[in-house]
Design brief:
Number of strands: 9
Largest sheet: 6 strands, parallel
Number of helices: 14
Shape: globular
Low-confidence stretches: none
Strand order of the largest sheet: 3-2-1-4-5-6
Strand content: 5-15%
Order of helices and strands: EHEHEHEHHEHEEHEHEHHHHHH
Length: 295
């Protein structure tokens, strides 16, 4: 069944997600903190809202897709926020990648207003958002998850209810941990191969067909070959995510030796000015440490 959806955050990920919801037959009212981002949604038959209030007041479902916890809190709370203007019984789905504790606090405060919440971060990057094949990991009540399935099915292919509030964000943090370590390993292999005189493209092809193969190697192969760091997911955002990983690990007493190193290497890249590059630019750090210019 079609839903009336208020979509908050029409950025790199949010814009194509809102477009796919409109194309699936949902009525989508989109709002973004900065102007000039509603064109694709309007072209897909959606509507631009002038305020959060306008976006959410008639919505069955409110979706937020924002960079971090402070932005989610900013649009959710206060007299101009979602909780002040969404109708009782509405379902808020936060699809941002934020700290698990922020998700559980949002669910608690929303419940006081008679509003339900799911945390539903995604994996798959901009390409997955455009193609509607995201992996969606969901935390919250099982009944709310079932109700939200038609919405999720317009956005993703792998859609899993992982547990109660905050657990979706915990699973996403694990995703970012695995991704960081995998990209770093691939970057190290690239320099190892090239400095050994191996033809890189042939080597990556054969490695991709064996146990060393991964989605990271497949998706980032051309980035490594061409040293093309046009962002599909920025180093700065991945650094933020690794902060979530580190904070959560500390809180639960989990020791992450490789994760800690990967977080430091990503942080180093950001400090060097690579925050706006694709996270495959971890290769630049390996080249720097190896005294290698990629030629």
């Amino acid at each position: 069944m079609s839903k009336t959806i208020g979509f908050i955050g029409l950025g790199t990920m949010g814009s194509p997600m809102a477009v796919n919801l409109a194309k699936a037959g949902h009525t989508v009212h989109g709002w973004n903190r900065s102007d000039g981002r509603s064109g694709p949604l309007l072209a897909a038959g959606g509507r631009a809202a002038a305020s959060i209030r306008e976006a959410v007041r008639e919505a069955d479902v409110v979706i937020t897709m924002l960079p971090d916890s402070p932005q989610v809190e900013d649009v959710s709370y206060g007299p101009d926020g979602i909780l002040a203007h969404a109708r009782r019984g509405a379902l808020v789905i936060d699809m941002s990648t934020i700290a698990p504790r922020t998700s559980t606090e949002l669910a608690r405060k929303a419940a006081e207003q008679g509003i339900r919440v799911l945390d539903a971060p995604v994996a798959g990057g901009e390409a997955g958002a455009i193609d509607g094949v995201l992996s969606i990991m969901v935390g919250g009540e099982a009944a709310d998850f079932e109700e939200a399935k038609p919405v999720f099915e317009a956005l993703g292919r792998t859609i899993v209810h992982c547990g109660p509030h905050g657990i979706g964000q915990t699973v996403k943090a694990a995703n970012q941990l695995i991704l960081a370590v995998n990209i770093q390993a691939c970057a190290e292999a690239v320099v190892f191969l090239e400095k050994s005189g191996v033809k890189l493209e042939a080597a990556l092809d054969v490695l991709g067909g064996g146990l060393a193969g991964s989605h990271v190697l497949t998706r980032k192969k051309n980035n490594f070959l061409r040293r093309d760091y046009t962002p599909s997911f920025t180093m700065g955002l991945h650094s933020k995510d690794m902060g979530i990983v580190s904070d959560t690990a500390r809180a639960i007493g989990a020791v992450l030796p490789l994760g800690s190193i990967a977080a430091q290497l990503i942080g180093s890249a950001v400090a060097r000015g690579d925050a706006d590059l694709d996270h495959s630019a971890l290769l630049r750090g390996v080249e720097l440490l190896s005294g290698y210019d990629g030629q």
